[in-house]
Amino acid sequence: MNFWYSLVDLLPFEWAQSGSMLFMKNALLAILVISPLFGLMSTMVVQSRMSFFSDALGHSAFAGLAIGALCGLAAPTGCAVVLSVVFALLFSLVRRRSNLASDTVIGVFSSTAVALGIFLSTLGGRSFTKFNSLLVGDILSVSPSRIALLALILLAVVLLWVFALNQLTLSAIHPALADSRGVSLFAVEALFNCAVAVVVTLTMTWIGLLVINSMLILPGAMARNLAKNMRQYTLFSLLGAVIAGIAGLMVSYYIGASTGASITLILAIFFAITFAFRKKRL
Known about the structure:
Elements: H1 2-8, H2 22-47, H3 53-70, H4 77-97, H5 102-121, H6 132-136, H7 144-173, H8 175-180, H9 185-207, H10 212-215, H11 218-224, H12 230-255, H13 259-281
Helix pairs in contact: 2-7, 2-11, 2-12, 3-4, 3-5, 3-9, 4-5, 4-9, 7-9, 11-12, 11-13, 12-13
């Protein structure tokens, strides 16, 4: 981290001065790790028409945190990750074994997970207020150890994209064709869903449960307004997510607003601009 701090010290901001505001420097590094994660995954979430899947995963992660807290765990995040992965696998299984549309399956799991989370967190007359911070998030509370963990997850997601992008894309666009080519639809979908589950669960504490879904929709939606091929689609989504992440952090610092909400609003502005450009191009 000392090398990172020395690099940030070169920036022309008062919070970047040497030895000061390490929490802001940690937050900037976290944004540089989190944004590419959401930028990459957003392309496949939008392509697969699973826009509310991350929202449902956030609800399941909330239920996992409630279970961990009920069991007296000091750090219930691990419990939340496990429950989110189980949720993602069950979703993949039900989606493949039934004729229900994806949005219906997502709605079933989402409503069940949020009800379970609220039920457990208020069981025995407990107060729900201790979970209020999850709703808006706090990127300034991120620790260097969590940033390192997120960096490892980013590396794993990049490797997934390198080795399985064609299978993921074909499964999303034409499942029947993918199946005829020997692609295991359940395995590919389950792997991707589990990756989304881990990312959403580990980042919702800093992004906020109320807006984390937008981080997996807006970069890809914005990129689709401009891209002519898959390579451009991925590149525009990545760039949009990173630029919005950095800009959102700066805006939240100088005006005192939520970082997650600031990033979301900037992404929404990007979408509006690119949509207008798309309309002119057509």
